[in-house]
């Protein structure tokens, strides 16, 4: 996917790497290289495993999963999209707000994954949730700029965002296990949109935390009820 926009009569491609984007790329690449020397268990400890977030309160996974990637192409295209779409946002918003928004989208995407797939033991990794949030913001700020889909088909950013959001939505509704990643993508877009529309994100996070606690408590009650059934031989309804 390549990207361009017109400024007057000139044609531009990309832009210099801005400070926060540079640091994010370095951080992602550094962690990606670390994965080669670490045990595969790092994926299950720092990747996002919804079941472990609820059962063991591994809340750090909501933050750390974004820095892990599944392969060279995975990290390459995520970092390419970050550079392509994030530079203008950082220059307009400032580095501090851009970083806050980026991390919020990543964590928000992780929360959506945990809420909708609370029993999943498949780890979710990658910066795609944050990248989709960046894409949403870019589409809201520059709806008529053009991107080339598959390097061939020109499409306005606003239509591209709708297309990517629709794909994530319908894919997440499918029965395939790949729906985990699509829910993460969709979650990043949703949280980005709500934040830019001045929704109370702190309240959303608080409600999400309460739901996570509810799922964990519900699971404990189920375990206790099974033990009671075995010991007392009586039916238990919860």
UniProtKB/TrEMBL annotation:
Transmembrane parts of this sequence: 42-60, 66-85, 97-117, 123-141, 148-173, 179-196
Keywords: Membrane, Transmembrane, Transmembrane helix
Mode of membrane association: Multi-pass membrane protein
Subcellular location: Membrane
Top-level taxon in the UniProt lineage: Bacteria
GO molecular function, one term: serine-type endopeptidase activity
Protein name (database record): Peptidase S54 rhomboid domain-containing protein
């Amino acid at each position: 996917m390549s990207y361009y926009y017109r400024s007057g009569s000139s044609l531009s491609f990309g832009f210099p790497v801005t400070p926060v984007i540079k640091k994010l790329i370095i951080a992602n690449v550094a962690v990606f290289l670390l994965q080669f020397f670490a045990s595969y268990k790092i994926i299950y400890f720092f990747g996002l495993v919804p079941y472990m977030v609820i059962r063991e309160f591994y809340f750090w996974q909501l933050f750390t999963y974004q820095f892990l990637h599944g392969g060279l192409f995975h990290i390459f295209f995520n970092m390419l999209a970050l550079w392509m779409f994030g530079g203008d946002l950082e220059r307009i918003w400032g580095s501090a707000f851009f970083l806050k928004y980026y991390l919020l989208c990543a964590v928000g995407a992780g929360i959506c994954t945990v809420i909708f797939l609370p029993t999943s033991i498949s780890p979710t990794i990658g910066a795609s949730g944050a990248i989709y949030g960046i894409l949403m913001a870019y589409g809201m700020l520059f709806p008529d700029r053009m991107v080339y889909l598959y390097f061939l088909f020109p499409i306005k950013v606003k239509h591209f965002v709708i297309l990517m959001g629709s794909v994530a939505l319908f894919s997440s509704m499918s029965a395939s296990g790949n729906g985990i990643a699509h829910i993460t993508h969709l979650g990043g877009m949703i949280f980005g949109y709500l934040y830019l529309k001045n929704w109370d994100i702190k309240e959303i996070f608080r409600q999400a935390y309460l739901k996570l606690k509810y799922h964990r408590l519900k699971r404990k009650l189920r375990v206790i009820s099974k033990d009671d059934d075995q010991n007392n031989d009586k039916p238990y309804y919860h």
